[in-house]
Specification:
The complex is a heterodimer of chains A (about 550) and B (about 120). Chain A has about 550 residues and is α/β, with parallel strands linked by helices. Chain A has 15 helices and 21 strands. Helices cover about 35% and strands about 20% of the residues of chain A. About 0% of the residues of chain A have low confidence. Chain B is about 10% helix and about 30% strand. A 5-stranded mixed β-sheet of chain B has the order 2-1-5-3-4, covered by helices on one side. In chain B, strands 6-7 form a two-stranded antiparallel sheet. The chains are: A alpha/beta (about 550), B mainly beta (about 120).
């Protein structure tokens, strides 16, 4: 099957859906494709937390204050122009979402803004209770109904961007329910596939956040930036098994109520680590980086909780206070057999967000004409670490901008599609065979273990070298020919295609991490502790002749 | 503890058959956890929908569990037999996967009229 469109958008999370709305507003025809169902997969729907935006509703604010906090969190590596755009245009997007009845929590007649860590004042809007992401997703999906130029196609996995004479001209895709190969001619293509947290064993992502957008961009000839910066969230839920909740849900409650972190011997340990470091934000005792470090070190010293993390305890809090702070969440916890007044839960660091990504300019264009990116898939705005609450803001602001510029680009060019340009990718899919080979679902788990154990929150040259060797061995096992087990909805073929992309992305993270011989933000080297001013530059990743290459680039300054 | 999962397999045009798997589990684990373990340990070709894994946010893992329509991520595993079938009123794709997307979000659906 062959389709044609002005603008192809890959990924129907917050960024992709906003891009579709803006491209359609600008008069472009749009195909909005998602490997999952529209508005259901990706990270946006998972975000139960807050959205940072300088509305000035709670307390006077200005986007320059928000920018100052964003740049401080990024530790010298932010693309200041992208960061400024995020902060300056956030209020318009958040108010548009408000007009579309997303349901931002209100008090005393104004939108309520909470004070999240790293911010100089209350700035973060949300939808109660823990419903921000689903509300954002639902609202954008409903708005898409008003734009007839947007064709939404779920169950469509984009395999490769098609490039002709160094220009992106469309894509080759797999329609999973039928197993049919689909080709799509597009004047502009936008990557809105989110981050790479599925590369790690414990993560807060949905199953399709495996970094495929980065691999699509690299193979098309575009650049990636800051790939070594993976954000770990210190107190992700570990045990007992908890369903129906975002695994990072404990943070606001720990913040509101003063939940205690305890080691496997039920002893507090935060203060010991806090004493070694002056960075402390008061209410939390430890910053996120330091909490991740403290929990990891306690586990390594044999003082972890039974499942390999730390205990989080609310037992010192009166039951009525727990009920007041958690609201209906107490009932959802009860459905999981968890009673916080009587038992502790286990938490551990989990991969949460990726600061790096596709390198773009302020029109969200990559170095490949016709290829754009938006949302978490973009690298640069958050530098070495992301300020809490910036992810949804970035999705909405960057999505809208990318939709506008991709539509403008499409209005000025003709379709460049040829079957010949798509041939390599189509032939690869056609060559798929039901050959004997490794269990690919298990191979994905092995890749996640390699990344968690050797390219995790704390890195050494030795571990990174071992990881690269493991990834090479895994790549040889997978081979160059796709494996299949069935025609319709074949998870084996999907795993093979995912592994092809995941291995490339995992290698680019490990190679960039090995090259950066310092510790900065979310990149922590045990063999190179401390920030090195000589490293105040970004690393750009390219793919040339099948090899990953790195080069240094100065962070973009405002102007 | 051990759970026995009886899964209806097959695609349209094939004779549906039930395959039974045993899976070790910890209390609190979900039916979706078992399906993901089965793919890693026993049969990677087993087809079922899911995206968000934990959060019950994506609403994709709906199936017929012991005769009731429910989310595989919310139903806890139990000792003894759990029976899994695809949704009865949706078009079957394969195994536990059915066509659950709204018609205008599918590839093979009437194309919406362009505004231009």
């Amino acid at each position: 099957m062959h389709l044609e469109t002005d603008v192809l958008i890959i990924g129907a999370g917050g960024a992709g859906m906003y891009a579709a709305i803006e491209a359609a507003r600008a008069g472009a025809s749009v195909i909005l494709a998602d490997r999952s169902l529209i508005g259901r997969g990706g990270a946006t729907v998972m975000a139960q937390m807050t959205v940072a935006v300088a509305l000035g509703e709670q307390t006077p604010d200005h986007w320059e204050h928000h920018l100052a906090d964003t740049l401080a969190a990024g530790r010298g590596l932010c693309d200041e122009n992208l960061a400024a755009m995020l902060c300056e245009e956030g209020p318009a997007r958040i108010r548009e979402m408000d007009a579309w009845k997303v349901g931002w929590a209100r008090e005393d007649g104004h939108i309520k803004q909470a004070h999240a860590p790293g911010h100089d004042r209350p700035r973060c809007v949300y939808v109660d209770f823990l419903a921000t992401g689903p509300a954002v997703s639902r609202t954008l999906r409903a708005q898409l109904n008003h734009f007839d130029g947007v064709r939404r196609v779920g169950d469509l996995l984009i395999v490769d961007i098609v490039v002709r004479d160094c220009v992106a001209v469309g894509a080759v895709a797999l329609h999973t329910p039928t197993g049919e190969i689909v080709t799509i001619a597009a004047k502009s293509t936008i990557i809105g596939t989110g981050g790479l947290t599925r590369l790690y064993r414990r993560n807060s992502a949905s199953s399709n956040m495996s970094g495929d957008g980065y691999a699509l961009a690299l193979r098309a000839g575009a650049e990636l930036v800051d790939m070594e910066f993976v954000q770990f969230f210190p107190i992700g839920h570990l045990a007992p098994r908890l369903v129906g909740m975002d695994p990072i849900m404990w943070d606001p409650f720990r913040y509101k109520l003063g939940g205690k972190l305890l080691n496997g011997d039920h002893q507090p340990f935060e203060e010991e680590y806090a004493a070694r470091d002056s960075r402390s934000d008061g209410a939390y005792v430890l910053t996120r980086d330091l909490a991740t470090y403290a929990i990891t070190k306690e586990v390594e010293a044999g003082r972890g909780s039974p499942a390999g993390g730390a205990w989080l305890s609310f037992r010192h809090i009166p039951e009525a206070d727990i009920r007041r702070a958690f609201g209906p969440v107490v009932d959802r916890l009860a459905e999981n057999g968890i009673d916080l007044a009587r038992q502790d839960v286990e938490v551990a660091p989990i991969a949460h967000y990726h600061m790096g990504g596709v390198r773009v300019d302020t029109s969200f264009a990559t170095s490949v004409p016709g290829l754009f990116a938006c949302g978490e898939a973009v690298g640069g705005a958050n530098g070495a670490n992301r300020l809490s609450g910036n992810a949804i803001t970035e999705a909405l602001v960057f999505g809208a901008r990318a939709g506008q510029t991709a539509a403008r680009h499409a209005s000025g060019v003709a379709q460049g599609w040829t079957e010949a340009a798509a041939k390599t990718s189509v032939d690869m899919l056609k060559s798929a065979s039901a050959r004997p080979g490794p269990n690919l679902a298990e191979a994905v788990a092995r890749l996640q273990a390699v990344m968690a154990d050797k390219v995790g929150a704390f890195r050494t040259a030795e571990k990174l070298d071992a990881a690269l060797a493991d990834l090479d061995a895994l790549a040889r096992e997978i081979g160059d020919t796709p494996m299949i087990s069935a025609k319709a909805f074949d998870p084996v073929l999907v795993d093979w295609l995912d592994l092809r992309q995941m291995l490339l992305v995992a290698r680019s993270v490990a190679i960039a991490a090995k090259a950066r011989t310092e510790s900065r933000g979310a990149h922590q080297r045990e063999d190179y502790p401390g920030l090195d001013k000589a490293w105040t530059h970004n690393q750009v990743v390219t793919l040339a002749g099948g090899d990953i290459a790195l080069r240094a680039a100065s962070p973009a300054k405002r102007g | 503890m051990k759970a026995t999962i009886a899964i209806q397999r097959g695609a349209p045009g094939e004779t549906a058959h039930v395959e039974t798997f045993e899976v070790a589990f910890e209390p609190g684990q979900s039916v979706l956890d078992a399906l993901r373990i089965l793919r890693r340990e026993t049969d990677p070709s087993l087809a079922f929908r899911f995206a968000c894994i934990n959060a019950n946010a994506c609403k994709e893992c709906m199936m017929l569990i012991d005769g009731e329509v429910d989310y595989a991520c919310k139903v806890k595993l139990k000792e003894g037999v759990t029976s899994l079938l695809p949704l009865p009123k949706k078009a079957l794709v394969r195994d536990l996967v059915t066509e659950i997307a709204p018609p205008d979000e599918r590839l093979f659906a009437p194309v919406r009229k362009s505004a231009r």
